[in-house]
Amino acid sequence: MTGDWIEGFSGAVTVCDKEGIILYMNDKAVTTFAKYGGRELIGRNLFDCHPEPARSKLKTMMDEQQTNIYTIGKNGVKKLIHQSPWYKNGVYQGFVELSLEIPFQMPHHERK
Q: Pairing relation of β-strands 77-88 and 68-74?
């Protein structure tokens, strides 16, 4: 499904189809979600992995093909979460979630 580079990528990458079935998880995603089944989550539905109200939000995002971006802090780690639809030949296929560890304090640069 992807190039070899993504397996060693430092961010967690999870890909699902438009029904919510998990198609792919890179090594970081497998490690991140190990306590929930890790690689065994591939083939399962994302909706089964999310309690309410996250399940309803996810359904709306997928139905309306909306991008969702936010940060979280958990166990002393801050992450940027980017959830966005993916397309093949212009046709909606599902969602990609990127989870990147980021510093609690980080520079912001305005570019012209």
A: antiparallel
Range of the domain at 43: 10-102
> DSSP assignment, residue 45?
B
1-28, pLDDT tens digit by residue? 456 888 889 999 999 999 999 999 999 9
Query: What is the number of domains present in the chain?
Result: 1
Burial 31-66 (b: 16+ CB within 10 A, else e): ebbeeeeeeebbeeebbebeeeeeeeebeebbeeee
Neighbours of 20 (CB within 10 A): 19
Going by C-alpha positions, the residue among 59, 50, 69 that lies closest to residue 94 is: 59
